[in-house]
Amino acid sequence: MAEGLVVERGVLTAQDEVWDTAVRQAEVIGPLTAKARVGLADADEAAAMLGISRRQVYVLLERWHVGEGLESDLLPGRSSGGCGGGRLPDEAEAIVTEVLRRRYLTRQRRSVAAIRREFTSQCRARGLRAPSRGTVVRRIAQLEPVSSTAAREGSEAACGRPMACRPRSPICWSRSRSTTRRWM
Question: Whole-structure pTM over 0.85, yes or no?
Fold first, then answer.
């Protein structure tokens, strides 16, 4: 790193209340780090003072030890995406969408394992990390059931799915007009 450069560690961008919380936590956590071992009684006392759990006290102690012993070490980190958010890069997401459209939604009815192999080979060819099997299964489960059944098994099979098809559905519209079938 070039001399004279200062790495921004979130201090400048932290909101005032977040910074105040980090300073208050540092006032309590700092003295605990001087001890060779932080026992349950000390952790419980610190937790009561900060209004957090004992486990969170130990998390803050670890962050203080790993860091440089500054208040900025106790600032909350940035979320990695969490539950429900996509974590695949846009290029990998485009590969997933294309492979599902071209390979999975066909009459050949390839297996999940075959689709994952296709993802893996295309991602590796582009130097990307391949999505896990769970990602593949979740993406398949997110497909619209009527159109995916129609693509893989035909429109007759899609219309036979209970509660999946209505008279106004584009797949079944012609069938509902030509037969006397009762729609629920």
Answer: no
